[in-house]
Specification:
Blueprint: H1 3-14, H2 20-30, H3 35-60, H4 62-68, H5 70-83, H6 98-108, H7 118-132, H8 142-147, E1 164-168, H9 172-180, E2 195-200, E3 207-210, H10 213-223, H11 228-233, H12 244-249
Antiparallel strand pairs: 1-2, 2-3
Helix pairs in contact: 1-2, 3-4, 3-5, 4-5, 6-7, 7-9
């Protein structure tokens, strides 16, 4: 049997929910007599692997972990790891489907109704973590911009790769900021209308900020590849162009 086949058998058996056939194949491969001996060998690796992935989730979603408590969050993390198809060699990218996992948890248990905002908060935290590891953007070339200033209609502006835009019906921005800055709030007021949040990395550290609907519309239009001429001709976007110099200054 090749090394690749052996590794495949081991990987499948690592999952506590593996089939009897997968477990038996592993047991036969390592030549142990009892199921208990095979389980004991697997549990050593299961604990180590799941522990490292749970720790990674806590580092990516620290606010969510603080809200639900480390013990419950660790349980969620283990269930997510063993039941998820999300598999990244780079643990910095791990947890991309964790917000959806939380949504499923909340939908399946009335005891979690009070945490309805948690999926949005998790999405915000994941975006913040992704911005941290994004490649640096090139500086805005003002000289080249001046040289082509007569043909602005066909210009397209590229949004920073670190930018993430989202809307939420919950005050997750205040929750996120209060925990990040260690400002414990006894209560956070509900919001009257959805808030729009922009994650970016203008310097070395990601930044979360509330933005206006006009800023959101302009950033979205630029990300979709619309030219300045197309944006200007759209009555819903033309006024938003006034915000462009400020966005360039802030490196969005």
């Amino acid at each position: 049997m090749s090394l690749t086949e052996t590794l495949s058998i081991f990987t499948l058996a690592l999952n506590p929910n593996c089939s009897n056939e997968q477990f038996t194949a592993f047991k036969n491969r390592i030549s142990v007599k009892t199921d208990q001996q095979a389980e004991a060998k697997l549990n050593i690796y299961r604990h180590s692997i799941s522990h490292s992935h749970v720790d990674t989730l806590i580092s990516i979603f620290p606010v969510c972990a603080a809200i639900v408590g480390e013990r419950l969050f660790a349980q969620w993390g283990r269930n997510y790891f063993w039941g998820s198809t999300s598999c990244h060699q780079d643990l910095n990218n791990y947890g991309d489907s964790f917000p959806e996992f939380i949504t499923q948890l909340i939908g399946s248990s009335t005891n979690l109704n009070e945490f309805g905002y948690l999926p949005d908060l998790a999405q915000l935290e994941y975006a913040w973590n992704q911005a941290l590891f994004c490649a640096d953007d090139p500086s805005f070339d003002f000289e080249q911009f001046k040289q082509h200033s007569s043909a602005t209609e066909n210009m397209q502006f590229q949004v920073s790769s670190s930018v993430f835009l989202m809307q939420s019906n919950y005050p997750i921005f205040e929750i996120f900021e209060s925990h990040r800055n260690s400002h414990l709030c006894s209560s956070i007021a509900a919001i009257k209308e959805p808030e729009i949040i922009c994650i970016s990395r203008p310097e070395l550290t990601p930044l979360a900020a509330l933005i206006s609907r006009q800023q959101y519309a302009l950033l979205k239009a630029c990300r979709q590849g619309l030219t300045l001429g197309e944006i200007e001709s759209d009555p819903d976007l033309s006024m938003a162009l006034l915000l462009l110099p400020k966005l360039i200054e802030e490196k969005k």
